[in-house]
Amino acid sequence: MDVRIQWTYIAPKKREVVLTSDFIRAEEALALAEDFEKTGRAKAIHFIDHHGGIWSKKELNKLLKEMESEPHDVIAYFDGGFDHATAKGGAGVVVYYKQNNEQYRLRANLQLDELKSNNEAEYAAFWFLMQMLEELGVHHLPVTFRGDSHVVLKQLSGDWPCFEDDYNAWLDRIEEKMSELGIEPIYEPISRKQNKEADQLARQALAGQMITSMMELTEKG
């Protein structure tokens, strides 16, 4: 989780100055706040998240402790496939995350109906990924999203415009859920070769082979 530090500083002649930092990791922000307090010139220190939420030092410490028992350090992969002959799609997602000092991997897929194109299957796969993150309890933290659909990731990030009404409907749905969960997205387009796990799951869904699995990863895994 990244936050800005807002520090109300008592300057010479008792003049108050409000200083705001760039976004930094919450753990680092709390450590800096400790140093600010040692100066004896800190009238107030608050922390501001990406959604404009304001946290006190006590509240932020409590949140970070709670997050240790919840999924965090999340890296999520997605892929969608489409069969023109049947108008069916397949979605595959893989989620790596930490919880209670352990590393986990979730793999899941889903067969999709009434789609029109491979691009729409990619949007539907991302939406399926958002649903899986919600089920895991992922909220109010950064999530790295990786996929080989550069169109979806670039449009979600706002780098590319979207002119198709059907795709805009998916974008709106995804962004609404993203905001609801308080997720701070980091979009990382990757190659198809780097997305093999999600691609295989999408292919298996198209073939009617449904998979949902969770496993704890060892250091070697």
Automatic annotation (TrEMBL):
<dbReference type="InterPro" id="IPR002156">
    <property type="entry name" value="RNaseH_domain"/>
</dbReference>
<dbReference type="GO" id="GO:0004523">
    <property type="term" value="F:RNA-DNA hybrid ribonuclease activity"/>
</dbReference>
<feature type="domain" description="RNase H type-1">
    <location>
        <begin position="70"/>
        <end position="207"/>
    </location>
</feature>
<dbReference type="GO" id="GO:0003676">
    <property type="term" value="F:nucleic acid binding"/>
</dbReference>
<dbReference type="Pfam" id="PF13456">
    <property type="entry name" value="RVT_3"/>
</dbReference>
<protein>
    <recommendedName>
        <fullName>RNase H type-1 domain-containing protein</fullName>
    </recommendedName>
</protein>
<dbReference type="InterPro" id="IPR036397">
    <property type="entry name" value="RNaseH_sf"/>
</dbReference>
<dbReference type="InterPro" id="IPR012337">
    <property type="entry name" value="RNaseH-like_sf"/>
</dbReference>
